[in-house]
Specification:
The chain has 318 residues and is of the alpha/beta class. It is 29% helix and 20% strand. It has 2 domains: 6-208, DHBP synthase (Alpha-Beta Complex); 233-314, Threonylcarbamoyl-AMP synthase, C-terminal domain (Rossmann fold). Strands 1, 2, 3, 4, 5, 6, 7, 8, 9, 10, 11 and 12 form a 12-stranded mixed sheet that branches. Strands 13-16-14-15 form a 4-stranded parallel sheet, covered by helices on one side. Helix 1 (11-19) crosses helix 6 and helix 9 packs parallel to helix 10 (303-314). It binds threonylcarbamoyladenylate (TXA) and magnesium ion (MG).
């Protein structure tokens, strides 16, 4: 069904549409989110449909302030409290034990809920005006690269959602770091702009999925689905000199100088810029008919871990 999508700069208008049971995309510092109030069961179902999201993939609940955590979580470990104290509001999601107010549609039947309090001021104002916490996946069609600008949201979801609250391009450009704090030992489920090294300065015992027995803890349900994939094929490279350009038209993104002969390229001056530009570049490549995108594979440290993770998934290697 095609519907009218209201494009607005007014936080009040967007919140009013959400509060009347609408599905509303909004900016955050990580990527744009596609929100529905957790107190609006119909809106939640429409959100899954608009995005083409499988029902067994849970949504993150967004809060306007740290104080609201108690509205959705039943208990907090000491480590969760420490992470909240240090990194909320910001690009971090914590998986916590849920309470009765969070419907199973949001958690895909799990007893836990992902909770995030964005730092972006427009997001915070929108969430403050919302009549209940807002469940929001990234505002892209399922499987495509996340949307890091309002134009990218329109490209994927115009005519499928009630409203888009227009904001600036996402400052980080990669989805939030996710830490599961619902069990004995905190576990990094998804790398993001809050790095493992930063997390460990507060909670040294955080482990990563790779070193945990597969059956021991539930993994991030969403990570089993293909993600972040542009139409072009992704080829990962550690040394740009070795790129053999017999496939064309080709593109390149990374921090090293581009190989000669690529039709489109983005040379980034830092990993921060690489992270911020990655999904935008993927979408640009698709719009430009690029067949193969060479991506520099950063090392597994700091923000490099998050970029690597997205690249491996986009390349179908994870
Ligand atoms: O930065 C972000 O996190 C963005 C913005 C909009 O906040 N949101 C986002 O949502 O990336 P989404 O739905 O694209 O990714 C959320 C991931 C999924 O892989 C999902 O499976 C996982 O979080 N997740 C959500 N709730 C969970 C839970 N209770 N336990 C484990 N994983 C969970
Ligand atoms: Mg997503």
């Amino acid at each position: 069904m095609i519907m009218h999508t209201t494009l607005t700069d007014s936080v009040e208008e967007a919140a009013a549409i959400l509060n009347s049971g609408g599905v509303v995309a909004f900016p955050t510092e990580t990527v744009y989110g596609l929100g529905a109030g957790i107190c609006h069961p119909e809106a939640l179902l429409r959100l899954f449909r608009a995005k083409g999201r499988p029902a067994d993939n849970p949504l993150i609940v967004h809060l306007s302030s740290v104080g609201q955590v108690a509205e959705v979580a039943s208990s907090l470990s000491l480590q969760a409290e420490q992470l909240i104290e240090r990194f909320f509001p910001g690009p971090l999601t914590l998986v916590l034990k849920k309470n009765f107010s969070v419907p199973y549609t949001v958690t895909a039947g799990l007893e836990t809920v992902g909770v995030r309090c964005p730092a972006n001021l427009v997001a915070r104002e929108f969430l403050r005006l919302a009549c209940c916490p807002v469940a929001a996946p990234s505002a892209n069609r399922s499987g495509l690269p996340s949307a890091t600008s309002w134009e990218a949201v329109m490209q994927d979801l115009d005519g499928k959602i009630d409203c888009l609250l227009r904001g600036t391009p996402s400052a980080i450009g990669l989805e939030s770091t996710i830490v599961d704090c619902s069990g004995e030992r905190p576990l990094l489920l998804r790398a993001g702009a809050i790095t493992l090294e930063q997390l460990r300065t507060v909670v040294p015992e955080i482990t990563t999925v790779a070193v945990t027995e597969p059956e021991e803890r539930p993994k991030c349900p969403g990570l089993k689905y293909p993600h972040y994939a542009p139409k072009a094929s992704i080829l990962l490279c550690t040394e740009v000199e070795k790129i053999d350009l017999n496939e064309s038209p080709a593109a390149y993104i990374g921090t090293a100088a581009q190989p000669k002969g690529v039709a489109l390229f983005k040379v980034c001056s830092s990993l921060e810029e690489y992270g911020r530009e990655l999904f935008r570049f993927f979408r640009l490549c698709d719009a430009s008919g690029i067949g193969v995108i060479y991506c520099e594979l950063p090392s597994d440290e700091g923000l490099g871990r998050a970029i690597r993770d997205r690249l491996m998934r986009a390349a179908g290697l994870a």
